[in-house]
Structure formats: C-alpha cells, structure tokens
Design a protein that fits this description.
Elements: E1 5-7, H1 12-17, E2 29-34, E3 37-47, E4 52-60, E5 69-77, H2 83-108, H3 110-136, H4 142-156, H5 159-170, H6 176-185, H7 189-197, H8 202-219, H9 222-229
Antiparallel strand pairs: 1-2, 2-3, 3-4, 4-5
Helix pairs in contact: 2-6, 3-4, 3-5, 3-8, 5-8, 6-7
Length: about 240
C-alpha cells in the first residue's frame, strides 16, 4: 500500500491581496500531509513600516519525542519579493522543520545518548582536575574559579566534537522517506542529493562509537590525568 501523500495548491496571491481581512487571520492552510506529518501555514503578523507579512510554518507529528511539533516564522516583503520566491522559501522552511524534528529523534537514540554521557563524564573529570588545582593553590573566589574551570574544560574536552560528528552522520537516516518526498514534490535536486549522500553511514557511526569508547577507557588512566594536569595554566 502506497503511503498517503496530500499536497495543496494555495492561492498565495489571494492571501497577499487580502491579508488585512480579519477573516484570514485565523485561517489555517494545509501545505503538505504525509502519513502523520502535517505542514500548515498561517498569517502571523503585519509590519506596515517594513511592508512585510509574516507567516508561521508549522510541522505537527505524532513522534514519541519531547517536542514533536516544530514551527518558525518567515517574512514576505510586499515590495521586493515575489510569489515564486515565497514558495521556495516555504519549501525550504518545511525541509528545515523536518531537520529540527529529526534532530530530536537522533538525540533520543541510544547511540547519541551513549556518547553524550561520555561527553558529560569527560567534562566532569576535567572539572575535578581543575578544581583540585585551584584548591591546592588556595583559590577561593567563586567567580575566579568558575572562569578558570570553564576555560580549562572548554579548551581540553574532545568528546563533544565526536558527538557533533555522530549527529552529522546520522542526519537524514531517521526520517528519510519524509525528506525524499518533500524534495521530490518541490523538485529540489540539491537537497535530494544531500539526503541520498548521507545514507548508509552505519560503519562510520560505529567507528565514532568505538573511538569514543576507546578514548573513555584512556580517560580512566593515570596517564590521561597526568596529561591533563600538564595543561593546567598557572594562576
């Protein structure tokens, strides 16, 4: 059975010509529906000084994540923009909302949470080293300690970079069908290529996980602690 897809032709010129009509202010236009993903458009505000109409684009889903609905505001300039530009802007925004939604799905995954925990553990180890150093040097001023610890940790932590790498490799692999249908309907070849290119990254994802696991084993050693202590800066 083919997935249910509904696209809607909206008369944007009519909206632009009649945006001051209060009857349109509460109206919701469906843009696109795929399975349980619903994209809608509403008027948000009117800026008479800038000759701008603001629209809210909203994506609703039933995904089991904390924030399963996403929305943002786009602006259409009545003097300098066109209907075609507005359509491209809306299509791009729908894709971006999908990226935001998928990001939460990724961050809920076991792979992401495993490395995120490693990131917090590394930061805690580094904070302990910095605080012990400050204790040994008799630094009691809270503001000075906070600045020193934050600076030291930010300059020496490494796992957060691998977490970013992991998220990048996982992108477009959870809501793949949604992304592909969106770009097909909007004839967006550049984004289509982006989605396809990022498929089948299982090996790269596992490599990142293995590298972090190996590093966190090293973090448990005295050798790592000595290395990090050598990076402490004199007060």
């Amino acid at each position: 059975m083919l997935p249910q897809i509904k696209t809607y032709e909206i008369d944007y010129q009519f909206i632009i010509d009649n945006y001051t009509d209060p009857k349109l202010w509460d109206k919701v236009w469906n843009l696109f529906i795929f399975r349980n993903y619903v994209y809608t458009l509403t008027l948000s505000s009117i800026d008479v000084k800038k000759y701008e109409i603001s629209f809210e684009i909203r994506l609703e889903s039933d995904l089991d994540i904390y924030n399963h609905n996403k929305s943002t505001i786009i602006k259409h300039n009545l003097k300098n923009s066109t209907i075609e530009i507005l359509k491209k802007q809306i299509n791009g925004t729908m894709f971006t909302l999908s990226e935001w939604l998928e990001k939460e799905v990724i961050q809920k995954s076991s792979e992401y949470q495993e490395i995120e925990n490693s990131k917090y553990n590394e930061r805690q180890y580094l904070e302990d080293i910095a605080n012990d150093f400050l204790d040994d040097n008799g630094v009691t001023n809270g503001d000075i300690r906070e600045v020193y610890v934050d600076y030291y940790v930010d300059n020496n932590e490494t796992v957060y970079e691998r977490l970013s790498d992991l998220e990048d490799k996982m992108r477009y692999n959870y809501l793949t069908n949604l992304f592909l249908i969106l770009v097909e309907c909007s004839n967006d070849e550049l984004r289509k290529e982006l989605v396809i290119k990022n498929q089948k990254n299982e090996e790269k994802i596992q490599q990142i996980i293995n590298e972090v696991d190996e590093y966190m084993q090293y973090v448990e050693t005295e050798e790592w602690s000595d290395e990090m202590r050598n990076k402490l800066e004199a007060i």
